[in-house]
Design goal:
Blueprint (H helix, E strand, L loop, with lengths): L7 H17 L4 H8 L3 H16 L4 E5 L33 E5 L1
Antiparallel strand pairs: 1-2
Helix pairs in contact: 1-3, 2-3
Bound molecules: zinc ion.
The site of zinc ion has 8 residues, from loops.
C-alpha cells in the first residue's frame, strides 16, 4: 500500500480530473473512488472542493441526495455524504448520492 497520500499537487490534479468526469456524467462517491483509486470519503471531500471551484466559473455542482430503499426517506442532513443508516427506519439499504456538474 502506498501510504503517502498527502500530496497537495497530486490532490489538486485529482480534483480537476473529478470535475472533468462530473461534467461528462453523474457519478456516485464509490464510482469516483473506484475510478480514481481513492477512498469514497476522499471522493466526497474532493467533490466538496470541486463544488467551490466550479461556482467561480458559473457552473454548479448538483447533488442527487441519498434515498432509503426501505422507507423512501431522502431528507438527509448532509446529502453529499454517504449515510450508513436511515435515520427514519434505521435500515442500512441507503443509496449513494450522485454528483454532476451543470454549466
Ligand atoms: Zn428508511
Amino acid at each position: 500500500m502506498n501510504r503517502r497520500n498527502e500530496q497537495p499537487a497530486m490532490e489538486r490534479t485529482t480534483r480537476e480530473r473529478i470535475a472533468d468526469r462530473l461534467r461528462e456524467e453523474p457519478l456516485s462517491p464509490s464510482a469516483l473512488a473506484e475510478e480514481f483509486g481513492i477512498a469514497p470519503a476522499a471522493a466526497v471531500e474532493a467533490v466538496e472542493h470541486v463544488a467551490r471551484s466550479v461556482a467561480a466559473e458559473d457552473a454548479q455542482l448538483l447533488v442527487a441526495p441519498p434515498v432509503c430503499r426501505e422507507c423512501g426517506f431522502d431528507g438527509f442532513d448532509e446529502p453529499a455524504s454517504r449515510p450508513s443508516r436511515c435515520p427514519a427506519c434505521r435500515g442500512e439499504a441507503v443509496s449513494e448520492p450522485v454528483f454532476r456538474i451543470e454549466t
